[in-house]
Specification:
241 residues; alpha/beta; Rossmann fold; 2 domains; five-stranded parallel β-sheet; 11 helices; 7 strands; 48% helix; binds P1-(adenosine-5'-P5-(uridine-5')pentaphosphate; binds magnesium ion
């Protein structure tokens, strides 16, 4: 498990205390294992410290992110954190922000970064695992910057499931799981938001040499064979506990 040495306020209070104030961003937060050993900063060299291993999973609606994440978890033992699922859980738990999240998802728009990053941070810092598969996040450059600033971490791997629009629409509309955003109007909006806001994130990570573009058309197993190759060079690190 890894956590930071500061005390953590619940989601609600973090809304009230502006997460992004200059003052807050200047506070250097010490990262620690529960053993009390300070955590390695990204790029640090101390052998006794360990940084989280982070994979971002990107792609349009219905591109197969969740399906492939299940296989990655089975094969490589990463902790799956679906940003969409965390937000839907917030709606179901009747939290103060549930209706705002519901309306945002219904419109195919993006929930404010401070909400999503806080949900992810909580999950990451309370997990026994240090290898995270973050599904459907970051969805915008603002999301990306907020995560990197708050978590003081960058992804090791970014997967991008590249799928033609008509295939994504077909998959989403035949999913039948009762999701409020699985209707043609919202799907069109989700696709537009993906193109306008998520593609710049994908381009950013391509420039940083972290992006792995996967052809998301084919059987689930065929697609996973491409994914497996991305993780292969990290296999030793992924086996460490
Ligand atoms: N399927 C999967 N693979 C297939 C294959 N190879 N061949 C044929 N069929 C295949 O797959 C979709 C469907 O296709 C399934 O029925 C599957 O069996 C089949 P899935 O794996 O679920 O695709 P996925 O890419 O996960 O699609 P999803 O709809 O979950 O993607 P979204 O990114 O749209 O949804 P998410 O849950 O991440 O976000 C929902 C909303 O939450 C967003 O629109 C946004 O409003 C909000 N949100 C934020 O605001 N911020 C965030 O950070 C995250 C979400
Ligand atoms: Mg999904």
């Amino acid at each position: 498990m890894w956590r930071r040495a500061t005390s953590f306020s619940p989601l609600i209070s973090s809304f009230k205390s502006s997460f992004f104030s200059q003052e807050a961003s200047q506070i250097k937060i010490l990262e620690m294992f529960t053993t009390g050993i300070p955590l390695q900063e990204k790029g640090g060299t101390c052998p006794n410290r360990r940084a989280p291993f982070i994979t971002f999973v990107l792609g349009g609606p219905g591109s197969g992110k969740g399906t492939q994440c299940a296989k990655i978890v089975d094969t490589f033992g990463l902790k799956h954190l679906s940003a969409g699922d965390l937000l839907r859980k917030e709606i179901a738990s009747d939290s103060e922000y549930g209706s705002m999240i519901l309306n945002t998802i219904r419109e195919g728009k993006i929930v404010p970064s401070k909400v999503t990053v806080e949900l992810l941070r909580r999950e990451m810092e309370s997990s026994d695992n240090y290898k995270f598969l973050i599904d459907g996040f970051p969805r915008s450059e603002e999301n990306r910057r907020a995560f990197e600033e708050i978590m003081e971490a960058e992804p090791d791997i970014v997967l991008f499931f590249n799928c033609p629009e008509e295939e994504m629409v077909k998959r989403v509309l035949s999913r039948n799981q009762g999701r409020i955003d699985d209707n043609i109007d919202t799907v069109r909006k989700r696709l537009k938001v993906f193109e306008e806001l998520n593609l710049p994130v994908i381009k950013h990570y391509a420039k940083r040499g972290k992006l792995h573009k996967i052809n998301a058309v084919g059987t689930v197993d065929e697609i996973f064979e491409q994914v497996r190759l991305v993780f292969a060079p990290y296999e030793r690190r992924l086996k460490e506990n």
